[in-house]
Amino acid sequence: MIQSIIFDFDGVLIDSRETLHKFTLIHHPDISENEIEEIFHGNAHSHPIIKKFVKEHREEIDAFFLNDTTKDSFYNGAKELIEELEKNYSLFINTSAPTYNVKHFLSLIEKEHSFKEILGFDIEVSKVKKFEMILEKYNLKKEECLFVTDTLGDLREAEEVGIKSIGVTWGVHKRETLKQGETIAIVDNYEELLEIIQKTKS
């Protein structure tokens, strides 16, 4: 039985694609959309561009995202989805964003306390290890969890742990790219996502 839903954050609950693109263009003015998408074919923090950003511009990145993000940055229906799911599931976030930023953003929609734990890259870069931390700390079995993400790299990390995933098409990667990973479903909106989760409950 599915007991816990683990969310990626950017591209699933919040639309940060334009912010990411704007910041990347400041330091890589010739980078293309496809090149940005390729960053997320694996763990983003293992990519040379992200490594360089974090090493040289960490405070600038954090401030840029904080200043460019409002409650309107959340996808329509994100708050309602969280409210519906938290009735029956334990919710977690496993993200490549900084933990503080994510907590702040969730506070904009009064949902910072809806998640049992939020694990950002400042806690651990590897999403594989963060999945393992959640499983161990909360005494969960991998079969009791579902992961929701918008990137192929995340799907690959969840597969490495043995956690089933649902891909969403409104973030970084479109259906064609997500199909390269292991999913139980690929969905186009929150209604489909909720339906799949509820069908997988038992």
What structural keywords apply?
alpha/beta, six-stranded parallel β-sheet, Rossmann fold, 6 strands, 202 residues
Instruction: Say what oligomer this is.
Output: single chain
Q: How are the strands ordered across the major sheet?
A: 3-2-1-4-5-6
Architecture (CATH level 2) name: 3-Layer(aba) Sandwich
**Major sheet description:** 6 strands, parallel
Stretches where pLDDT is under 50 for at least 5 consecutive residues are: none
Q: What's the level 1 CATH class?
A: Alpha Beta
Roughly what fraction of the amino acids lie in strands? 5-15%
What does this structure look like?
The chain has helices spanning about 15-25, 35-40, 50-70, 80-85, 100-105, 125-135, 150-160, 175-180, 190-200; strands at about 5, 90-95, 115-120, 145-150, 165-170, 185. With about 200 residues, the chain is an alpha/beta fold. The protein has a single domain, classed as Rossmann fold (3-Layer(aba) Sandwich). Helix 6 packs across helix 7.
Set out the fold topology:
Layout: E1 4-7, H1 17-27, H2 33-39, H3 48-68, H4 78-85, E2 90-94, H5 99-107, E3 117-119, H6 127-137, E4 145-149, H7 152-161, E5 164-168, H8 175-178, E6 185-187, H9 190-199
Parallel strand pairs: 1-2, 1-4, 2-3, 4-5, 5-6
Helix pairs in contact: 6-7
